Automatic annotation (TrEMBL):
Residues 160-323 form the Integrase catalytic domain. The lineage of its organism: Eukaryota, Viridiplantae, Streptophyta, Embryophyta, Tracheophyta. GO terms for biological process: DNA integration. It comes from the Eukaryota. SUPFAM superfamilies: Ribonuclease H-like. It comes from Dendrobium catenatum. It holds the Pfam family Integrase_H2C2. This is Integrase catalytic domain-containing protein.
């Protein structure tokens, strides 16, 4: 259809195509190729009537009159009785507007392209004052797009967690799953991050661990060393929404933050840790992927010795006010009394203050950056919303890649 109108702008040909495959017998009589040609055509009738609408159209009447009475106005001109703005056909207020948008977005030659591309196609050919707004509304409400396309932009802004005040009080908990099974049967890593110092602890564990296993691990490896945390952030894994898990932390007065992929309550830290740890492990184990468990403590040391992007300090430095001895320190440097020890308390306070300020700033930056890919949308009780159902929510065997999203 658009091709048809394109012709029409440049020639005397007015199309009156009315051969949409409406009748069954026609379909049978035609070859598949012919059927396709017909499918690609569009019924355009009543084009001549459009001319009669200009005179009474609130947007175009003055330009129309100017052209009729030969007062050539800025951009407007008459061709074959139709009003043009530059090279675009002016569309008076009528069902034509919706028809043209529909044809460009979901017509026979269209493929439900997004708002911008639909708009570009129309703007090259037609003009009416609220073209932009009309296209946005149409595409936003297109039921096919809503059902079959994943939205590229997440709804709901990032909700940054409050900046922690001190060391080992506010923790994030996550798992790296799907690793090669080691001799001890471990196939996952539990990652515990102190949100203040960014110090990480990695524990080998099993994918099948339930909330009780994880709690035992946490108490043995974490609480025994650093005390009971004030808050614990994790994703919404079934383990973390179980009654046992909630009840346990409630009794310890630890606040649980459950973050969701669609409404992340996070500072992005744990994702960075997981990615970096994955890369480090690959480098360490190289051709022996099942040996990752043996390398984990080495990884942890390396991790906590590196300056962190958000704090600007090494986690070791924040927690212990000094870096632990490295192999090179022990082997190469002579043992000498450090003057820093005398000022440890003062130094510690300085570091903690600096880290806190740095964290506040970097959390703000993270939120700004994350929100640039997201949009704020307020929903009210009773609103209808489309939910994207992920693969794991489909009954077994019913999911295919081409399912509605
Ligand atoms: Zn669509």
């Amino acid at each position: 259809m658009l091709a048809g109108l394109f012709f029409f702008k440049n020639s005397h040909l007015f199309y009156n195509i009315r051969s949409r495959c409406s009748t069954g017998w026609q379909m049978h009589a035609l070859s598949r190729r012919a059927a396709m040609l017909i499918r690609l055509q569009t019924e355009i009738t009543g084009l001549q009537e459009m001319k009669t609408l200009y005179a009474a159209d609130e947007d175009f009447t003055s330009f129309w009159e100017q052209c009729i009475f030969g007062k050539s106005s800025s951009d407007y001109s008459l061709r074959h009785g139709f009003l043009f703005k530059a090279n675009c056909l002016c569309i008076p207020k009528s069902s034509w507007c919706q028809f043209l948008i529909k044809e460009s977005h979901c017509g026979s030659l269209a493929a439900h392209v997004g708002r911008d591309r639909t708009l570009t196609q129309l703007q090259a050919r037609f003009y009416w004052p609220h073209l932009n707004r009309d296209v946005s509304q149409f595409v936003e409400r297109c039921p096919v797009c809503q059902t079959y396309k994943g939205t590229s932009q997440n709804t709901g802004l990032c909700m940054p967690l409050p900046t922690p005040e001190s060391i080992w009080e506010d923790l994030s908990l996550d798992f790296i799953l799907g690793l090669p099974r080691t001799r001890t049967g471990a196939d996952s890593i539990m990652v515990v991050v102190d949100r203040f110092s960014k110090m990480d602890h990695f524990f080998p564990c099993k994918k099948t661990f339930d909330a009780v296993h994880i709690a035992k691990h946490l108490f043995k490896e974490k609480v025994s060393l650093h005390g009971v945390p004030r808050s614990l952030t994790s994703d919404r894994d079934v383990k973390f929404i179980s009654h046992f898990w909630r009840e346990l932390w409630k009794r310890l007065h630890t606040e649980l933050n459950l973050s969701s992929a669609y409404h992340p309550q996070t500072d992005g830290q744990i994702e960075v840790v997981n990615r970096t740890l994955g890369n480090m492990l690959r480098c360490f184990v190289q051709d022996h992927p099942k040996k990752w468990e043996e390398m984990l403590s080495q990884d942890e040391f390396a991790f906590n010795s590196m300056p962190n992007r958000s704090t600007g300090h090494c986690p070791f430095n924040i927690v212990y006010t000094k870096m632990p001895n490295h192999l090179v320190d022990v082997a190469v440097l002579p043992k000498c009394r450090s003057t820093a020890v005398a000022h440890a308390a003062k130094q510690f306070k300085n570091i903690v203050d600096r880290v806190h300020a740095q964290l506040t700033e970097s959390n703000l930056k993270y939120k700004q950056q994350a929100d640039s890919h997201r949009r704020f949308k307020k929903f009210y009780p009773g609103d209808l919303v489309m939910l994207r159902v992920r693969r794991e929510h489909f009954p077994t065997g019913t999911y295919t890649k081409h399912n509605p999203r």
